[in-house]
């Protein structure tokens, strides 16, 4: 059964609120009514309406304060402002703050019904457009990357975030499992509640139970006072258990009961406590292999493995490597007060040919190392730390790089249509050859550089439109730099 669109009416005059409810009684919507700005904010956080009918004059605050709050907390909510204090200036102000329409009191049933229908239809179409545009996202709650594999991860997070279902994240070390857990929390209705992360592999097993559940005074040697554990601290929010497969078997039994009942006891206490927690777990191991080896409880695995998310290694994200490297370069250059703003073609070629066993964390450390130890504008090969300084520049390495980039280029996401088109390139070519004949190599360079500019310096995208491999462009750029 399709869910009805949700509409929130904010009107502090009881008679007017009843009138508007009567006007909308036959509309296929779910309508709630509140009387103050604070009630509106609290209801929006829980009700998630598509449309807000907002009176500007409220008893506790001005409606424009609610609009300002919405612009940062719930920008997707469509707002129609209602006021008897109409003026052009007010209309301009509320539109600037994000309102989509303006109703001057008094208004009749037909005006309100038409406005509600139009705004809900507009919201529905905008939602469809946003869904279609999800593949264009290059950044998402701490992630950087526009590859297809990452777009799939973003969509799973979008779908799972609003649920209380447990999420089980897998992936190699350094792929961003904690970033993923935080993204789930930030995208969820629990985003204003605590996000508590606990690394099950970094805490001695004798202390792990106390870290999760807490302890009372005198529960064990050194327990000089009562202490709340992660379970209590995460109440209402999200508890992230990293490296869950490294948890001691005996504690796995207690965790299973906790996940099933949301109840626990502090170490040394006989008192049951209950909390409301969303569980997110992660491991860099194969959890099913750990179950088969007897190191991880099968019943706990199936209790936790409700929504699986696998984070791909960096070597499978060729088209993201340069985006991530440029992101770190920009951020660290600002932090360190350095002038670096780009990578030489040879450095980019090495980045694309390297396997990155440490994944994003290793790439992050490489960029940080360069920024701390060197000066310059463009990062050059001699500035690369080990083992990047030992990566071969032989034709064999470049050939392997070209195969990998060619494969990823087949799945490259289309850039925005306005950036570049065949017509753009035809105009560029015509402009270059009309009235004069010049060397083909010179024309080729100008066309490639123009394509890179039109694609906002995104070489893989420019390469796709030019129907060549990105590695071909990197090699040409390297040749041009060497001959400069």
UniProtKB/TrEMBL annotation:
<dbReference type="Pfam" id="PF00072">
    <property type="entry name" value="Response_reg"/>
</dbReference>
<dbReference type="Pfam" id="PF00158">
    <property type="entry name" value="Sigma54_activat"/>
</dbReference>
<dbReference type="Pfam" id="PF25601">
    <property type="entry name" value="AAA_lid_14"/>
</dbReference>
<dbReference type="GO" id="GO:0006355">
    <property type="term" value="P:regulation of DNA-templated transcription"/>
</dbReference>
<dbReference type="InterPro" id="IPR011006">
    <property type="entry name" value="CheY-like_superfamily"/>
</dbReference>
<dbReference type="InterPro" id="IPR009057">
    <property type="entry name" value="Homeodomain-like_sf"/>
</dbReference>
<dbReference type="InterPro" id="IPR002078">
    <property type="entry name" value="Sigma_54_int"/>
</dbReference>
<dbReference type="InterPro" id="IPR025943">
    <property type="entry name" value="Sigma_54_int_dom_ATP-bd_2"/>
</dbReference>
<feature type="modified residue" description="4-aspartylphosphate">
    <location>
        <position position="55"/>
    </location>
</feature>
<keyword id="KW-0902">Two-component regulatory system</keyword>
<feature type="domain" description="Sigma-54 factor interaction">
    <location>
        <begin position="143"/>
        <end position="372"/>
    </location>
</feature>
<dbReference type="InterPro" id="IPR002197">
    <property type="entry name" value="HTH_Fis"/>
</dbReference>
<feature type="domain" description="Response regulatory">
    <location>
        <begin position="6"/>
        <end position="120"/>
    </location>
</feature>
<dbReference type="GO" id="GO:0000160">
    <property type="term" value="P:phosphorelay signal transduction system"/>
</dbReference>
<dbReference type="InterPro" id="IPR003593">
    <property type="entry name" value="AAA+_ATPase"/>
</dbReference>
<protein>
    <submittedName>
        <fullName>Sigma-54-dependent Fis family transcriptional regulator</fullName>
    </submittedName>
</protein>
<keyword id="KW-0597">Phosphoprotein</keyword>
<keyword id="KW-0805">Transcription regulation</keyword>
<keyword id="KW-0804">Transcription</keyword>
<dbReference type="GO" id="GO:0005524">
    <property type="term" value="F:ATP binding"/>
</dbReference>
<keyword id="KW-0547">Nucleotide-binding</keyword>
<dbReference type="InterPro" id="IPR001789">
    <property type="entry name" value="Sig_transdc_resp-reg_receiver"/>
</dbReference>
<keyword id="KW-0067">ATP-binding</keyword>
<dbReference type="InterPro" id="IPR058031">
    <property type="entry name" value="AAA_lid_NorR"/>
</dbReference>
<keyword id="KW-0238">DNA-binding</keyword>
<dbReference type="InterPro" id="IPR027417">
    <property type="entry name" value="P-loop_NTPase"/>
</dbReference>
<dbReference type="InterPro" id="IPR025944">
    <property type="entry name" value="Sigma_54_int_dom_CS"/>
</dbReference>
<dbReference type="Pfam" id="PF02954">
    <property type="entry name" value="HTH_8"/>
</dbReference>
<dbReference type="GO" id="GO:0043565">
    <property type="term" value="F:sequence-specific DNA binding"/>
</dbReference>
């Amino acid at each position: 059964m399709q869910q009805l669109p949700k509409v929130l009416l904010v009107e502090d005059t009881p008679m007017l609120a009843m009138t508007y409810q009567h006007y909308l009684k036959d509309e296929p919507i779910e309508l709630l009514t509140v009387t103050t700005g604070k009630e509106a904010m609290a209801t929006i956080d829980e009700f998630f309406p598509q449309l807000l009918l907002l009176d500007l004059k409220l008893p506790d605050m001005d409606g424009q304060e609610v609009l300002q709050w919405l612009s940062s907390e719930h920008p997707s909510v469509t707002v129609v402002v209602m006021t008897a204090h109409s003026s052009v200036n007010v209309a301009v102000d509320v539109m600037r703050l994000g309102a989509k329409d303006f109703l001057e009191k008094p208004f009749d049933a037909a005006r309100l019904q038409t406005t509600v229908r139009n705004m809900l239809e507009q919201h529905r179409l905008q939602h469809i457009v946003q869904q279609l545009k999800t593949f264009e996202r290059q950044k998402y709650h701490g992630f950087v990357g526009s590859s297809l594999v990452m777009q799939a991860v973003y969509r799973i997070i979008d779908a799972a975030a609003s649920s209380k279902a447990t999420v089980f994240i897998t992936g190699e070390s350094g792929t961003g499992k904690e970033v993923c857990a935080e993204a789930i929390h930030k995208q969820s209705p629990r985003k204003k509640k605590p996000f508590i992360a606990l690394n099950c592999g970094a805490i001695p097993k004798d202390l792990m139970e106390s870290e999760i559940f807490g302890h009372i005074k005198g529960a064990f040697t050194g327990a000089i006072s009562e202490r709340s554990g992660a379970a209590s601290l995460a109440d209402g929010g999200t508890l992230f258990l990293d490296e869950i497969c490294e948890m001691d078997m005996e504690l796995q039994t207690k965790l299973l009961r906790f996940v099933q009942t949301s109840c626990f006891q502090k170490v040394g206490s006989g008192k049951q406590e209950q909390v409301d927690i969303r569980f997110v777990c992660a491991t860099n191991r194969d959890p099913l292999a750990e179950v088969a080896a007897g190191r991880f409880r099968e019943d706990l695995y199936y209790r936790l493995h409700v929504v699986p998310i696998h984070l791909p290694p960096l070597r499978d994200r060729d088209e993201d490597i340069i985006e991530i490297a440029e992101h770190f370069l920009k951020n660290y250059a600002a932090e360190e007060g350095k002038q670096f703003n780009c990578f030489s073609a040879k450095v980019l070629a090495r980045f694309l040919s390297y396997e990155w066993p440490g994944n994003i964390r290793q790439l992050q450390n490489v960029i940080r190392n360069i920024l701390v130890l060197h000066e310059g504008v463009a990062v050059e090969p001699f500035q690369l730390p080990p083992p990047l300084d030992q990566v071969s520049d032989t034709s064999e390495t470049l050939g392997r790089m070209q195969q990998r980039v060619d494969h990823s280029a087949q799945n490259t996401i289309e850039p925005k249509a306005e950036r570049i088109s065949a017509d753009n390139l035809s105009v560029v070519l015509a402009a270059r050859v009309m009235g004069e004949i010049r060397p083909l190599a010179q024309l080729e360079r100008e066309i490639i550089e123009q394509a890179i500019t039109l694609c906002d310096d995104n070489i893989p995208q420019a390469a796709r439109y030019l129907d060549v491999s990105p590695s071909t462009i990197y090699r040409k750029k390297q040749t041009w730099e060497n001959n400069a």
